[in-house]
């Protein structure tokens, strides 16, 4: 087990070093078995954080994202947090003024993460395979940049389906409704 942990740490270190050395605009820490965002990365990347526009932390074991993460990587345009154990986002997510796409699929959200509704440049929100039953339709309808919201495989009620259609000027992706059983 220690050997596997050591290999995982080395893999994260390599990916961070590659990003810093090559001054790329993306950091891919997907599939690294992270339970938290490593504090050491903030220090290691301090010279390039403003240049990071895309980040993937998909398929880890993250239970939360901290406000420090959001404020450190303030220039993000794309953030992939799919396949973790997230159930909420920090309010500071609203400070990601350049964020265009966020993937929160396959997490543990029970409610729509409402801070996302005030991110001005957000075009794509992927929340498929969560546990979301209610959606703040009025807030979503006021999101001028939103082009796509994926709520497939969520227990969204039929009343949401009826409310949402006339209100939203974007593509709304929902799972097909279950057929009504005949008596």
Name the features.
7-stranded parallel beta sheet, 5 helices, 183 residues, alpha/beta, 26% helix
What do these coordinates show?
The protein has 183 residues and is α/β, with parallel strands linked by helices. It is 26% helix and 11% strand. It has a seven-stranded parallel β-sheet with strand order 1-2-3-4-5-6-7. The chain is globular and about 50 Å long. 28% of the residues are buried.
In a few lines, what is going on in this structure?
The protein has 183 residues and is of the alpha/beta class. The protein has 5 helices and 7 strands, in the order αβαβαβββαβαβ.
Oligomer: single chain
Strand content: 5-15%
Mean pLDDT: 87
Portion in helices: 25-40%
- Total beta strand runs: 7
Principal-axes geometry comes out as globular
Q: Identify low-pLDDT runs.
A: none
* First-to-last CA distance: 56 Å
The ordered string of helix (H) and strand (E) elements is HEHEHEEEHEHE
Number of helical elements: 5
Structural class: alpha/beta
- Physical arrangement of strands within the biggest beta sheet: 1-2-3-4-5-6-7
Radius of gyration: 18 Å
Largest sheet: 7 strands, parallel
How is the topology of this model organized?
Elements: H1 2-22, E1 26-28, H2 39-44, E2 54-56, H3 67-72, E3 78-80, E4 101-103, E5 124-126, H4 137-141, E6 148-150, H5 158-167, E7 171-173
Parallel strand pairs: 1-2, 2-3, 3-4, 4-5, 5-6, 6-7
């Amino acid at each position: 087990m220690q050997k596997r942990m050591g290999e995982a740490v080395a893999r994260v270190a390599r990916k961070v070093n590659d990003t810093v050395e090559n001054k790329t605009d993306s950091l891919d820490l997907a599939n690294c078995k992270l339970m938290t965002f490593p504090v050491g990365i903030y220090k290691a990347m301090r010279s390039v954080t403003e240049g990071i526009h895309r980040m993937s932390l998909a398929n880890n074991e993250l239970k939360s994202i901290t406000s420090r993460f959001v404020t450190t990587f303030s220039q993000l345009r794309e953030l992939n947090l799919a396949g973790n154990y997230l159930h909420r986002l920090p309010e500071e997510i609203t400070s990601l003024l350049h964020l265009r796409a966020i993937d929160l699929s396959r997490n543990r959200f029970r409610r729509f993460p409402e801070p996302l509704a005030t991110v001005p440049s957000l075009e794509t929100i992927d929340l498929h395979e969560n546990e979301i039953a209610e959606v703040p339709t009025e807030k979503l309808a006021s999101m001028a940049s939103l082009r796509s919201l994926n709520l497939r495989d969520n227990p969204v009620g039929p009343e949401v389906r009826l409310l949402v259609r006339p209100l939203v000027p974007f593509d709304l992706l929902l799972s097909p409704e279950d057929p009504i059983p005949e008596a």
